[in-house]
Amino acid sequence: MQSLAQNKEEEVIASKVYRGKRINEEDGLYLFEKAPLGFTASLANFIREKRHGDRTYFNRNFHIEPTNVCIYTCAFCSYSRLIKNREDGWEYTMEEMMDVIRAYDDQPVTEVHIVGGVLPQYDVTFYENLFRKIKLHRPELHIKALTPVEYHYIFKKEKISYEEGMRRMKEAGLDSMPGGGAEIFHPEVRDQIAKDKCNAEQWLKIHEIWHNLGGRSNATILYGHIENYSHRIHHMRLLRDLQDKTGGFQTYIPLKFRNKDNEMAHLPEVSVIEDLKNYAVSRIYLDNFDHIKAYWPMIGRTTAQMALAYGVDDLDGTIDDTTKIYSMAGSEEQNPSLTTRQLAEMILQVGRQPVERDTLYRIVQDFSHLDLNENWSGYLELPVTNNQR
Questions:
Q1: 379 is a domain residue
Q2: How far apart are CA 123 and CA 165, in angstroms?
Q3: CB 355 within 8 A of CB 343
Q4: What is the DSSP string of 234-284?
Q5: pLDDT digits (tens, 9 = 90+) for 150-184
Q6: In terms of residue numbers, what domain contains 79?
Q7: CB 3.0-4.6 Å disulfide test: which of 173, 174, 240, 244 passes with 135?
Q8: How many distinct structural domains can be found in the chain?
Q9: Do the domain assignments include residue 386?
Q10: Which of 237, 269, 232 has the alpha carbon at shortest distance from 254?
Q11: 388 lies in some domain
Q12: Nearest to residue 262, comparing CAs of 196, 179, 317, 194?
């Protein structure tokens, strides 16, 4: 493999990558601070293609966001509304959430993603009953639900341990956990942007317990605000260490800070170049994570396509405008919704192979052999219809 390395430091890093060896924190900082982006991209793409070839994964999913009213006040959040200021907030009942589930009865979705604000009425019993109702109504629908921020609160309110709480969630029908609420682990930053909610140790512990129960989960980072590169490396090191221990993480999802209508609106957003660099370094550093995801509603379709050359192998799903968390913060996609064909075409347009997966990365349909001009009838192209809003 020909290397683009231009000095000794880059030769050492390239050698590690090509031999399948782990880079260290100093290597990661070098890639962030000094390495040419083309060099970093070439290493990330090498890893991506070694693991997945040109395959690029997506799924057919929709979101339920029970509420945007929250007891916590995170400086970066444009989504939540305080309990005392609920004018433009929503608080769905369980029956309203089940109405969303039923709206997809005739659609070939495989996953419901449930995450939202934290309020006292959404407690352990509420979510146990919700998960059971969903499974009773549609047993095959994968429930990916709640972050450690929500679990920490409801378990503390119930006065039960994390272990008991996660066991009860599993017994009620929880299939996997999303990666939200991680933000930045380093206390120098976390205490400034999300001091009230669970800390890094608690976030990691809840995932560890879930992994030990046989569950899978994702992990995220919120980047591009007041953190520096060393904070990003520290964040990934803690994730890599836990993954060494449990092997329960599936996907790493870098989430870009958006500055619309929040307490950090004075901060400029980072560039697309910074986005691509962050994907690439993440792919190289997190050698024990199978997948790196670019969340297309957050960064837009064009940047998501470019990210497929910077280590990314997953674009999330059809979404169907059922999430407001990033659109309210000024994301590129204000009404995030794509049909299966549109997602597959995005991938084909940049020479990659679209593969529909379920939440656990089992292949549902392989679209890689299809042509952009081909008639795709018979490939379950139904656009998801949303009756939520």
A1: no
A2: 11
A3: no
A4: HHHHHHHHHHHHH--EEEEEEEE---TTSTTTTSPPPPHHHHHHHHHHHHH
A5: 999 999 999 999 999 999 999 999 999 999 999 99
A6: 8-366
A7: 173
A8: 1
A9: no
A10: 232
A11: no
A12: 194
